[in-house]
Amino acid sequence: MSKHAIIIFLKYPELGRSKTRLAANVGNEKALEVYKELLAHTNLISKELNCDKYLFYDKVTPNKMPWGDDIYHTAYQLDSDLGGRMQNAFSQLFEKGYERIVIIGSDCYDLTQQIIEEALEKLKNKDVVIGPAKDGGYYLLGLTQLIPQLFTGVKWSTEEVFSSTTKALDSLNIGYDTTAVLSDIDVYEDLPEKLKLLIK
Fold it and tell me: Which residue ranges form the domains of the chain, and what is each CATH number?
């Protein structure tokens, strides 16, 4: 077993279940097209990573991404808020004996394999690595140990997520590093030109 792993949070792509804020602008069908493109990008940047890979689906379903069961393990998110779901996923993998774990979603079209590898590398020297998003959240979190305080008392899906996370780390006297600031895709204005063309 590899000593490090990546957790990928995702929803199986179904009409009306993904990118709901984007769907309010462009409709469910186009939002689903964008989400499928984001998933394809997530697959592209993660499949060659030299670590164990876990797809954490948001609900138990017979449907799975056709990305290869030999490459990706299947797991399921706990029924909780985002903090509870992330804490549970990290907890599951730390219990399996992993020493460096990075979590990402499937919303960041700017994310690259190199940035994920950089985060895993930084975890050799720091307990925490965060990938800040332009909207004040984060697109990546890397840990070498479970830190429950990072998952409670956070107003998820707000511009305070990154700052409240770093404040919690400062109060615990835990050092952290960051990766590049990137854009998450939540609404139409976040879409890069390539994805806007996809749904025109």
Answer: 4-191 (3.90.550.10)
